[in-house]
Amino acid sequence: MRRAFLLFFIAVSYAHSQSPQDLLRSAEEVYKSPDGYEIKGNGVVRPPNSSLQMNFEVIIAAKQSSPALPGKPQTPAAPGSMVADFHFVNLGSDKAEKLPQVMLSNSATGGWDRIAENVVAVREMGSEELPLNGVAVPCRILQVDYKSANDEPVGPDAVTYSICSEKHLVLKKTFAYSTSRRATDPPAQWTLVFDSAQFNRPAPEWLINVESASSLTIRKEWIGHAAPEFALSDLSGMSVKLSSMQGKVVLLDFWSITCPPCIREMPMVEAMGESYRAKNVVLWGVSFDLPDKSKKWLLQHQHSLPTLSDTDFVVSDLYTVHGIPSLILVGRDGKIKNYWEGEVPQADLEGAIRQALKP
């Protein structure tokens, strides 16, 4: 009995000997596990100024990595997330209320293998017990402040994690995140709770389907049609009309500072614009962020992308942009020559520009 008590005491002491920062890093490593896993739970989000709450299922999974080769470590997992069975619940209002539009962004339900990145501060807030695979397990509650893509604190609302002391899984996450496309709208309150975790298992079918799907879509239904006219302000407040560029090849790059693929693709797009500027190719970024934020981010990260502000999604809706990054190439005749959603290979973009420049 003494030996069993001693082992239990050592295990508990070790679990709590980790600093909050170390515990957060340990949790991040769990989601990089190469053994394959599936973690299931439920989420709720309450849109601001609404008596309706949206409930949904959320699943995090990663496939098993290939065995390590001599001299090479095993590749960390790249987890994916899926949201399903979402429905609204009225929390007590007697008034008939229109269902709010809620964007279930991967930024809200994903990113588990990066939870220890861009951290400004970590505070331990206490402990609680939560169920995992039918057993109550002790968890430590951490409150984490992050910095944004602008290298500024995200604040004022921190992200709170309840992390299982032994397995280092996040069993609860609460945070504020906008459910609206508009950056000026107030954020909604989210809670994600996970109660089932299975490791050392093959990838679920939905994850295989997601990973096998192409990340690049060509919007063929737009090709050959006249590009709709629009007027947007650039980051200096000057109005720019598409019709003012008639007779030139125009490349529109829809992007946001919160979109990693957009940022990854940006240097290539800027280089294409610079290379073909003398041949009457005009490049404009179309940003969903507030003008001051776009301007500051471009300056801080030394990017030269000329940018128009579409914070109200007027042009995005006009061109039915489903996701970003999106690139739209308009010919000298004002018709759309190419329309890509996703990251475009440089050779494809350059070939399309050259084709559009032909007499």
TrEMBL record:
Organism equals Granulicella arctica
Q: Which GO terms describe its molecular function?
A: antioxidant activity; oxidoreductase activity
| Annotated Pfam families | AhpC-TSA (PF00578)
Top-rank taxon of the source lineage equals Bacteria
**Where in the numbering of this chain does the Thioredoxin domain appear?**
221-358
What is the protein named? Peroxiredoxin
Query: InterPro entries attached here?
Result: AhpC/TSA, Thioredoxin-like_sf, Thioredoxin_domain, Thioredoxin_ResA/DsbE_sf
